[in-house]
Design brief:
By secondary structure, the protein is mainly alpha-helical. The protein has a single domain, classed as P1 Nuclease. 46% of the residues lie in helices and 2% in strands. It has 16 helices and two strands. Helix 2 crosses helix 6. It is globular. The protein binds 2-acetamido-2-deoxy-beta-D-glucopyranose (NAG) (5 copies).
Amino acid sequence: MRFSRVSLILAAGSTIIPSVSAWGAVGHEIIATVAQMHLHPSVMPILCDILNYKGNCHLAPVAAWADRIRGLPQYRWTGPLHYIGATDDYPSETCAFPGERGWEGRRNINVLSGIRNTTNTLESYMGLRKAGLTTENDEDAAQVALKFLIHFVGDMHMPLHLTGRDRGGNGIKVSFDSRVTNLHSLWDGLLIAKRIRTIPSNYTRPLPLPDVESQLRGTIYDPYIRRVVWEGITGRYEDELDSWLTCPAEPSVQPLQTHWEQWLSWTFGRRIGSWIVGSHLTDGGLNTDDETLCPYHWAAPIHALNCQIVFPKALDEPPYNHVSFSGSTDDHACNSSNQSLEVHWLSRPRKNPYLELDTPEYSGAIEDAWIVEKLMSQGGIRLAAVLNWLFADMDDSTPLNRTYIL
Ligand SMILES: *[C@@H]1O[C@H](CO)[C@@H](O)[C@H](O)[C@H]1NC(C)=O
Ligand SMILES: *[C@@H]1O[C@H](CO)[C@@H](O)[C@H](O)[C@H]1NC(C)=O
Ligand SMILES: *[C@@H]1O[C@H](CO)[C@@H](O)[C@H](O)[C@H]1NC(C)=O
Ligand SMILES: *[C@@H]1O[C@H](CO)[C@@H](O)[C@H](O)[C@H]1NC(C)=O
Ligand SMILES: *[C@@H]1O[C@H](CO)[C@@H](O)[C@H](O)[C@H]1NC(C)=O
């Protein structure tokens, strides 16, 4: 009875008795659930059809599919689509996004291009579908693209998927509550897990918001989602939600660009210009952004968190710069095994040589600033807006309460 033990451990120290449920890939599932609460009513039936659901349809169960299949031979190529790293990026010393030497890895094989690519695939698919011209291959491609899109929007809102340093923090061992973990796992789940253990008890009761409650699935993190929606999306972030969806209307010229490059881009237009001048234009030379969908523009402030808070300076100062690191071999892999969080809380605290991050200065500051909750809110609202933009039937006159659109 592994899961019930975990529930008890989570409940200790707070008054909540969460329902028994697996952890899974918590962050992805939360973002997918928040997104689902903000879909136009015409969208979910189309998504369920594409996902070929029989029975209860929900986006959360497919949100971590891309992590589960990335080790299979036919999907191994998709590994680098989960993240992006700039060549000169080394938080907290420098945060290049990108610097003069551009991006690591192969061109257009990264999480931001993944968002652009899957969105394009789904847009073409909808064109064919409206014309009644889809084949079985199109249906399969749309299903894969949708599952990847749901996942990549989640990955993009995880700061460690936007830096190449130490395999997105997987190679940096740290201590959390005197238990050994790594920086990536800490941000994947442990920060959220701690928030759930200490959530105010009033979130175990349903909110007076039927369109929120109807999307919850009885998971251990339902109270956390309620809090993110109540205090975040309908609370402190209410007035900035629209700004999370805007893209720069005109590609602005960044300081790195030379006069020669400016001339090229003015002369030939942005798209041609950005192919020629590489990494110096508004979307970092990725060709991902336009005036409607702009993953690079959205990602830039999330990447900046790596220098602001994610990588503590102490990691690069004695004595912690001398402890040797090791970790899993897969780049930027999220360990979405059900067990990784459980194993953490079940393991005994022990003296270890790593930097302790369950401190007021680190986890406390992240909690006070609502950093993880803001990322969950942004991921959910942006995913909903992209899906609404792709799939909503705007002639449908159902009154809209919580719908955002690009
Ligand atoms: C783009 O998406 C299509 C369909 O999902 C896939 O076949 C293709 O390999 C993708 N390319 C990149 C660079 O992501
Ligand atoms: C729950 O309690 C907190 C104070 O601890 C309050 O700020 C919040 O608004 C309450 N939430 C609900 C849904 O009543
Ligand atoms: C919109 O909000 C009203 C009032 O809060 C509620 O009665 C109604 O059910 C909501 N509509 C939808 C589609 O959720
Ligand atoms: C996660 O939990 C679910 C539900 O208990 C189970 O079906 C699944 O096999 C588990 N996956 C892993 C990787 O442990
Ligand atoms: C994921 O976590 C589980 C449980 O802690 C562990 O057995 C497994 O080796 C981990 N996988 C990776 C790739 O780190």
